Amino acid sequence: MRANPTWEDLPLRPELRSARPYGAPQLDLPVCLNVNENPYPLPEAVHQAMMAAVESTLANIHRYPDREALVLRGKLATYLGHGLSANQIWAANGSNEVMTEILQCFAGPGRTLLTFPPTYSMYPEYARNTHTQFVTTPRREDFQIDLDQVAQAISLYHPDVIVIANPNNPTGTLTTLEDIEAILNLSEAIVIVDEAYQEFSSAPSALDLLDHYGNLIVARTMSKAFAFAGGRLGYAAAATTIIDALRVVRLPYHLSALTQAVAGAALDHAEAMLAQVDHLSLLREATIEQLRALGLTVIDSRANFFLFGPFADRHATWQALVDRGVLVRETGPESYLRVSVGTDQEMETFIYALAAVLAPDPAASPNSQRSAA
Ligand SMILES: *Cc1c(COP(=O)(O)O)cnc(C)c1O
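Above: query sequence and pyridoxal-5'-phosphate SMILES. Below: predicted holo structure tokens.
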């Protein structure tokens, strides 16, 4: 091959030829409300504990870490409760990695993943990366999962893995445990309940069902409510045999000693890490009310984000908000935008900017005279 090959020169797998790296734009703006992070920085006491954990880890940094991450998995089990123990927990670098490993075990060539759009945009990417056939059955108009459609899809596609985001991203919709149980009763497939936003939902977790359904995997992350997105720690709870299967496909030493130590320190201070969760849920409700008062439609949400619209040209609205220093997300149903719940100050800025975008009256907005250009 010639030097400096073009994309076309590369002997790429055909399904990657038209693919581009996934991800929300990472723009350096004053108010970033686009990837559902917890906006509050580390409490001082946790900062200290993490520094101490790093310090003692560095003494052994010339050695490989604990391949099984048993101390960390024990702490995750304690955090989840439900009588779980370390051998029912798996952990990796973000729940993205956990879910890819689940598909490596239970999906793959000749196998099928079923999910319910509009939902998390990474699911088709996990499927593609693991050579899994990706099939969907749409949610109802109110974004609830349609159990009749699910039953039909299961008899049509015979999925090997079913993924339910709960609360769903990007709609924020909560699926009841009854509906999840109904789906578990329809199929012997591995059912992943992706509870990335569970802590915001004040609803019971699918962990309640683990004792009764051996094919259930509950996926979680420390990236959202736990305010640890930069630490990259996702995890899952399931039957011990499922965890053992994941241990087969994981890369050796996949979780760095630093990740294990710092995540462990965060879990030792779970209460402090989660201290703002209730406030964020209340702020979500207050912000939704304010947007409705502006005449917008807002989709009810049980997570730390919600969809709002409709906009004839949502990209133009997105851009107008960017021009005012506010980054939201262009995702989900056409004509809607998604915003994450930030701090009180950030939400005030967001609403002020949005009101200005909706009613572009130069007299009403002191910042609109191109001074920002
Ligand atoms: C953010 C998110 C995740 C996971 O993120 P990680 O940072 O990889 O742990 C998983 N599922 C959904 C639905 C999400 O929104």
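The domain at 44-272 is CATH 3.40.640.10 (Aspartate Aminotransferase; domain 2).
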